[in-house]
Queue: 4 jobs
Job 1
Amino acid sequence: GAASAMLQATLFAYAGRMGPGCSGALMYGQGLVGMITCILRIGSKICFMEEAPFEGMRLSSMLYFSLSLVIVCGSVVGLMMLLHRMPSQRIENRPDVRTLTDTPPTLEPLLAPQQEIPLAVAEEKVNTLDVLRVVWPYAAGTVFNFWVTLAFFPAVITDIPPSYVDTMTWMPVLLITAQKAGDLVGRFFGEAAEKYFLLPTVWLLAGLRLGFIPLFLHLRSSLTTLGMFHDLAAFVSVTAFATSSGLIGTAFIVRGQSAIAVGIQRDVASRIMALAMTAGLAAGAMTGYIVHNFLPQS
């Protein structure tokens, strides 16, 4: 967990240095990895469906984690190769480059055109508190968004029972896949949403997500109320919940970085937003543990 948080902070700092568009791409990449993970889990489960239940679970888990290890190792190697090739990294290592606030000519092709953004923090020696005073509404929104998401996924959502006899326990796997698919779509459109939605609008959308809570708790505890539409309601609501999470989370993070001028100030803002996301995930996981163990279910 600590290594993951440190890696996220580093990646967001690099992405933020090249512009909010790169942070949006990073958010989309995280969603894509989640979707790939679900595909691997489904594939490994299908491969051993004919085995005895325990043996099939053991073999499919071994295959799943082996493939995941290969992908992680490949990603680490690819990241190290990419960092060494990045023009920004080569430029920073040059002795004749003394500041981070100047955009070198060789970096221009990699940067999206920047809009005129007010210089919120002007000094090159940045006080983190000064940056925090500017980005706190976006950081708070990021914490809230991911707290709500992790409070009910996967703790509550994967407890939603199917309306049929599910001896192979496909329902949790498919619900997780629906969540990751929705999250991927939301992250894809999140950067565009940031350009058109005002901050109060994004906060309003984040607050409206609380409306999913009673629905999830009802689906978790009752199979009879919705009858034949129980499973459909579960998949539609989970997908919508995840789509809103990806869209709102990306909008908050990209907007938070856009509020700060280029240079080391944006690096600090990027780390603050990454910390906010990690804090929201941690708070949501603890809330999910409480909800999972202390609220009634069917």
Job 2
Amino acid sequence: MNVARLNMTHGNHDWHNMVVARIRQLNKEKGYCIAIMADTEGSEIHTGELKEAIKVEVGTQVYFTIRSPAPPEINGVPVVGVNYDSLGEDLEVGDNIIVDGGMCELVVTAKAGPDVLAQSIEQGLLLSKANLTFRRNNELIRGRAALLPVISSKDWRDIDWAISAQVCTVCPGANFFVSCPAPAASSQLPASPQAPCMKHAL
């Protein structure tokens, strides 16, 4: 293992500080040179926090909503919050919702205000913070999502944390290693005595 990747989509800065401290302690005690990479979330469309995973079968109905907080259910149908205000504008009946690149797939069957009702066409799991992509006639629906910045306001807060924590490198989100312009903050990343084998960069 050469690099420890911190997934900034999950956890908080206190938790990541604990992980960084443990890695550096191991480097010091064992003579390792494990670098630390902060992988920011990017402006992806995600589900909200769920109390537990939702297991779906073929035909299972699920509501996706932009309401915050999302109700646990609507008329007995489980509800999943989504962090994308244009959900109902971009989706049409018949569109496909792909969860985590194929963890499960649902088809939109109805829309009502902030809520989108979809039906699963395969078995799978809906998890917290799952990535969502939308397709129509097998083509990716970009809609207003195309206007989302590559680096979100949360990403900038995480980058500020990464600078203060002196991690070795920061990878902007956008589905991991997607090419994008390096932000100005990259010039602020300091040299790290804890991991001299790896240069700070974005």
Job 3
Amino acid sequence: GPAGGLRMWDGTNASSEEFRTNTSVGAAQCFSVSVAFPVTMMIAGIVGNTLALLLAYSSYHKENNKKKSFLLIIGALALTDLTGKLLISPVVISVYLTNRQWSRVDSSGNLCAFFGVCMTTFGLCPLFLANAMAVERTLAIYAPHYYSNLVTIRLTKLVVLSIWVTVVIFALLPVVGVGKYTLQWPGTWCFINTGKNIMGNTIFASTFTVLGIVSLLVTFTCNVATIRALVIRCKKKVPSSNKQWERITVDTLIQL
């Protein structure tokens, strides 16, 4: 790769010696960062997500069915992020402990593929779960009767499971040859290969980008629509269904 830019390792075309050289050079070029940084990030993530899971679990057994659907998604989001921290952080910490020499941790390159799958999975899953929460709030406000009949705990569980399974399948595509995960500068993590003009790499990287952008746009649009409806109702001071609208308002604030 270009000097000072992105460092990548192609496990098919590069020799192990080349791999070791690239990672060593990447480590030398990177500013010195203490291993305390990834350790702190991991601990903060584990503690925060564990607390969120406990709160969601505790509230889940106290609320009505509609509130439970929202809490299920909140819990799934916290569980997803917690799992990501537990799978990714130890690898990063191990690389930092070897002076950012990836080859000492992963001489075969298999761990790089695993790391890339995790990065893709735990990058897209939270976005799609946030989509589900945003759409759920919007339906509750703009189509309350449809929402009451459609949104059930069973459907919510199915949506969450579908998101997890679909994203994992997508993240595994580079493992079967559609795209590729490669070592990224400064040699402490692996992600989608964007540095080679190969059709599979281009398709996978572009699809990942489009999915992320569309997901953000859907969430943003739904949140704006929800906030607009809440503001309008607040100005009109409509007295009916106060408890329902109070619940929707609180859920929206939690989601944001």
Job 4
Amino acid sequence: MSTLSFSLDPSAAQTTPSQRTQYPIVTGTSVVGLKYKGGVMLAADTLCSYGSMAKYKDARRIRTVGTNTIIGASGEYSDFQSIMDTLEGHTQDDINYDDGHKSDAKSIHSYLRAIMYQRRSKMNPLWNDLVIAGSGFLGYVDKIGTTYEDDFIATGFGSYLAIPILRSKWRPDLTEGEARALLEDCLRVLFYRDCRALNRIQIAKVAEGETGVVSEPYELETNWEGAGFESTKGGMEGDGGW
């Protein structure tokens, strides 16, 4: 018959391997961004899900960094909060040096690439996909440090559902109003098709020569009367489930 034994030796506790976060818990979904004539614009909803439960409906996933950069994040919300704490310290360092230099969006993009790759290399990644925007700049960084720049970007389910819309309708000479309407169309489709999305959204912009602005949340108008939403699926009677 086996017996349980306990040790008071402090070194015994050090034999347990270091544990890392294996998957995100409280998550936000897509961020969509595009360039338009005279600026850059981002959009995201305000929902954070706890697993499959729509738990937090005022989680704001677009923030300003300094005066001329905005950042949006998909993925683990607590990791995004940690990233923002780091960026706020970086911005304060710029102020403290008082040398007339301020980090622009491209510098922030490069800085975040180094942070994300360093955490990935330690097998303890920050579970976020980030979109960074500034005057004339739009870039992406993921949790393993992969980066690119483009005229339009989408994360999460948006990379499947919003990118085809943007490829079809984006033009380099979009006005601010047209850019806003296009982003709203993308988020409306995501609300219809992504079960982790919400129709309560925020829009942010950085116009050339101006500071970044993030709107207060507002609700998109939606319409569920389309035939695709009303007909049964899979030839089954009932509520349209599979």
